Structures are given as structure tokens and as C-alpha cells.
Amino acid sequence: MHIPDGYLSPVTYIPSYIAIIPLFAYGMKKLKESLNEETLPFIASLTALSFLVMMINIPIPGGTSGHAIGATAISILFNPWIGFISISLVLLIQALIFGDGGITAWAINSIALGFVASFVGYYSFKLLSKLNKNLSYFISGWLSIVSAAFIIAFFLGIQPIIAHTPDGKPLFFPFDFKITIPALVGSHMLYFGIVEGIYTFIVVRFIEKIKKLTFQGQTNET
Amino acid sequence: MRHKVYILIGVFLLLIPLGLLTESPAWGEWELDFYEKVLGFVPEGMKHFEGIKTLIPDYSIKGINPVISYYISAFVGIGIIFGFFYILKILTGRSSER
User: Fold this and answer.
1) What's the pTM?
2) B69 and chain A: CB distance < 8 Å anywhere?
3) Fewest Cβ atoms closer than 10 Å to its Cβ: which of A168, B56, B67, B87?
4) Where would I find the H helices in chain A?
């Protein structure tokens, strides 16, 4: 999920904005190094695909819905810094234009769905691809979105503990870990992880086929 | 060959109306009256953010068919994304020529 405005206390979102500045600056540097005539259509298209796949809400039992992110596909095909920047850009557009996800929560959302998902996806792929490449697309996609869900569940779950009135009334998101972890991590393990895994498999396989024909992998290093 | 990458965008564009089939929100992204119902109150910090206006809230434009609104939203998003990368490329191209 994208955390909306009003869910996170300033004690959470102010440090998150400070933390994201150096990450973002380094990611932009990495992106600029990779961006050229050949790579631009791919990077822009993969980012657009992430935006589109997040519009495809899939209902699950229990009355909620969710979607894939697409961070792992970009990270495997280019590198996790580009995955991070691309997803952060998508989240920024969603927050500013569509009111999907908060502006105050943008940094936490980007750290979870962008940074954590990209790096977990990339390194689990690096590790697993030695064993079985096709399976590793799926598993790294699954792991990436489950990790992102865990980070979101963590930051939501600490809210009632760190921000409440003297008599214990939560000021921001009211449910703690006991609820957020099973709900978010569980649903991503069972459903959206599968979707992310399939998305990663299809998109990476497809793009690798075209990439081979277009240019010899010059960008696949961190 | 690289134009083939746009085939993927086309395929996903065909799929996006599926996202409108469910009324269920994402977990946690409930309306404020949900909290009123479950907790008996709405947390103070959540109240303040009601009414922040964005250009196309929830990917829907008043008076326009939801599917068409969804497509307009998709094209706005894709346009900004491609614009961002093209502008970045132009800017970095210039700075490296210096």
C-alpha cells in the first residue's frame, strides 16, 4: 500500500525526508550515468509500466486490494539505484497528481517500495540466478514486495506506540504491529508477492530478449 | 528493435480497466469514517489532511466515465514519466559537453 497523509507522525516523516536526500542524490547520479539514447526508452518504459501495474488493483479475500510494484524488474535489467529512482518518481506523481499516497509519506513510501524493494529484488536475484534463472525472477520479485510490505507495516505499526495523547489515544495510524504485520506482510506473501513474481518474470524475460537485439548489456552493473 | 518495448506498455494499457473492477481499498487506505466505526473516533493527526486537493484525485474526473478517466490518468502519468527522463537526458547531455 501507499501510506496516505495523516498516517505518520512528524517524528517519523521528517527523519525519513532527511534520510532519503543522500540516497536520492546518489541514485540520480547513477541514473544520469546510465541514461543515453539506447537506455532511455527502456528505463522510461519500465517506469511507465510500474505506474500502470500499480493501477491494476487486485481484490483479495477480506475486503481489501493491492497491486504489484515493478521495482525488481527495473533493478535486474538496469540496477537497483535506477529502480529506486524510478519507483520514487512514480510515487511522487501518484501523490501530487492523483492523491494516491501521501506527500508527507512520500519518503517512507519511496524507501519501502523503491529502495528496499529494488535492493532486495536485485541482490536476491544475483544470489539465486546461479541456481535457476527463471525461478529466481519470480522469487526475487516475491521477496522484494514482501520486504517492502514489511517496512510499511513497521512504520505504520510504530505510530500508536510513538504518537498518542497522554491517555493513550493514537494521534496518527492507530493499529500496531500485531495488526499491521499479519495484514500487510501476510497479504503480500500470499497474493501480491505472486503477482510481483509473475510480473518480474514476464517483463524481464521480454525486455532481455529485445535488449539482446538492440544493444549488448552495458548497463547491468551497480 | 527497441520500439518493441512499447508493446508491453500497450498490453498493460489494455489491462488497466481491470483495476476498476474492485471497490475494495488497499489495506489501511480507508475513509475516515472507517476509523470512526472501528475505534469510535478519528485520530487527531488524520483529520487535518482531509481536503488536500490534487489534479485528478483517485484517478477519476468528475462527470467523465471512470474508464476514460482512468485512461486520461494513465496518459498523464506516462507523459510525465517520459518527460522527466527526456529532460534529464537533455540536461545531463549538455553538462557533459562543457
Assistant:
1) 0.94
2) no
3) A168
4) 10-34, 39-53, 71-77, 80-98, 106-109, 117-128, 133-157, 159-162, 177-180, 186-187, 193-214
